[in-house]
Amino acid sequence: MRSLWLLLGLGLLAMCQVQASEEESLGDLDDLDLSDMDENDEEFLRLLEDKAKAKDVQRENEIASQLAEVQHNLLNPVVEVDLCETIPCGAGRICQIQDEKPECVCIPECPEEIDTRRHVCTNTNETWPSDCSVYQQRCWCDSRDERCANLDNAHMHIDYYGACHEPRTCDGEDLKDFPRRMRDWLFNVMRDLAERDELTEHYMQMQLEAETNHSRRWSNAAVWKWCDLDGDTDRSVSRHELFPIRAPLVSLEHCIAPFLESCDSNNDHRITLIEWGACLELDADDLIERCDDVKRAKPHMLG
Length: 303
Ligand SMILES: *[C@@H]1O[C@H](CO)[C@@H](O)[C@H](O)[C@H]1NC(C)=O
Ligand SMILES: *[C@@H]1O[C@H](CO)[C@@H](O)[C@H](O)[C@H]1NC(C)=O
Ligand SMILES: [Ca+2]
Ligand SMILES: [Ca+2]
Known about the structure:
Layout: H1 2-31, H2 42-75, E1 93-98, E2 101-106, E3 120-122, E4 127-128, H3 131-142, E5 158-161, H4 172-195, H5 201-212, H6 217-229, E6 237-238, H7 243-246, H8 256-263, E7 270-271, H9 273-279
Antiparallel strand pairs: 1-2, 3-4, 3-5, 6-7
Helix pairs in contact: 1-2, 4-5, 4-6, 5-6, 8-9
Signal peptide: 1-20
Main location: secreted
Protein name: SPARC
């Protein structure tokens, strides 16, 4: 990008200079009234010299200012930017240009959902056709749009994917067996991601370790998932950060909600790595905090 600007800038500069020297050669003759002067006249030579000097100074100034402009453009490239590109709008909103300014507005239309698996159940135990429609409704209520069905909807959020249903109990045996199933599941998810080349180099290494060293099999997967859930990298997983693992599974796996509840053993709404390990019934000594703060490497970028 930079070198492109440099080339453009130098090209422009060269064009300006050619133009300037053409104008100059004509200008000299026009400005001087030669009729009264003898060619040998000292006055004439002095005048010519002064004029040349003045022209030189002027040209230097022009070139200097052109260079300054090129330099300025190099440092502050005026690229045609999509004004909306820099505006994060959040769920249920999209960016639109209004009066030449980017603005976040409620998403006008959600894709029509026929698939009932796309339904979502909110914390108010209401079934909505899709997550989009929940966020759209929340936006409407936030901005006092007339399409807001109930002002309380400004605070609703998705509890889980799937239509609302009777809370199913997770009985003793299922809950007892759940940590083992969860460990296996995490190991398999990590293995799948590794096979699809969707882990960072750091987590690829941990996955390889899990494959080759039996005592790392579950602990590395557990550490990876805990790091992955900790979106703000404050080294604890909040209730909010559990959303990606909780919401899609509640309908399929009735033990996930009570299981996750049980992980926060001191009930401070945050799950530490120690709590997470204990919850998955892993040996605390095997759990080493090895988070990769580079969240997701683009696959195939490094060739
Ligand atoms: C939520 O709604 C479903 C069906 O609409 C109902 O069966 C269930 O009992 C409700 N759950 C709660 C906690 O009220
Ligand atoms: C396997 O992992 C354990 C720790 O969990 C470690 O002490 C041991 O050295 C590892 N073995 C190999 C062969 O790397
Ligand atoms: Ca966190
Ligand atoms: Ca806790």
